[in-house]
Amino acid sequence: MTVLLVLFFFATFLLIDYFRTTRHAIVKPALQPAADVAPRLQPPLVGGFEVPANLRYHPGHTWALSESPSLVRVGMDDFASKLAGKLERITLPQRGQWIRQGQKMCTLQRDGYEVDMVSPIEGTVSNLNQAVERDPKLALRDPYGEGWLLTVQAPDAKTSFRNLLGGALARWWTEESATRLQRRMPAMALGALAQDGGTALEDLSTNIPDQEWLPLAKEFFLS
Fold first, then answer.
1. How many angstroms separate the CA atoms of 46 and 12, rounded?
2. Which of 19, 43, 167, 216 could form a disulfide with 52, with the two C-beta atoms 3.0–4.6 Å apart?
3. Domain ranges across the chain
4. pTM of the model
5. Higher-confidence residue: 211 or 72?
6. pLDDT (tens digit per residue) in 148-180
């Protein structure tokens, strides 16, 4: 029931965003070409979690970045990295494997438990981040940079991106996830979710009993 309610709100906000974007499409300025070496700015914090504005997000807490009309880089977002905590292994798909939007992309393993994360994009896996395979904690330390997971050749990337969250919707979703997690874990250490505007704890899972972590992760990762 929780997942259905979440998807209902997700669909509603996507519809609102679509009409708002369509209405302002005529006056929207053209995107400027990216510099060869762009400075890395501190992403805005929402509920204690970083939400870079240049990415699009799946409600299962994975992100997508368009690098060309058909090449998309993907990874887990900051909320997922902090909820995942002390990972022992990340199992990525094989090169050449077709993955579908909203279905299994990779598997996280910790303390004998496994949870899947869903793909934000649909297409063929073209490359894997072998550094993350060797050191899963890299995805936790730098989920938007060196901790990316894989790249995908997406023949219909434009359609996939329409189904993702960006801008105000992505910030709202992150805030809603932070609030829902706080409700689910009322005994969590004070300040863990940085309600005062600070950064959330690097490993929120330290405040979650092992037997409760798996169903909680499955709920938020929509797996």
1. 21
2. 43
3. 47-221
4. 0.79
5. 72
6. 999 999 999 999 999 999 999 999 999 999 999
Phi, psi of 133 (to 5 degrees): -65, -40
The 3-class secondary structure across the chain, one letter per residue, is: CHHHHHHHHHHHHHHHHHHHHHHCHHHCCCCCCCCCCCCCCCCCEECCEECCCCCEEECCCEEEEECCCCEEEEEECHHHHHHHCCCCEEECCCCCCEECECCEEEEEEECCEEEEEEECCCEEEEEECHHHHHCCHHHHHCCCCCCCCEEEECCCHHHHHHCCECHHHHHHHHHHHHHHHHHHCCCCCCCCCCCCCCCCCCCHHHHCCHHHHHHHHHHHHCC
Q: Which two tokens stand for residue 69?
A: 């009309």
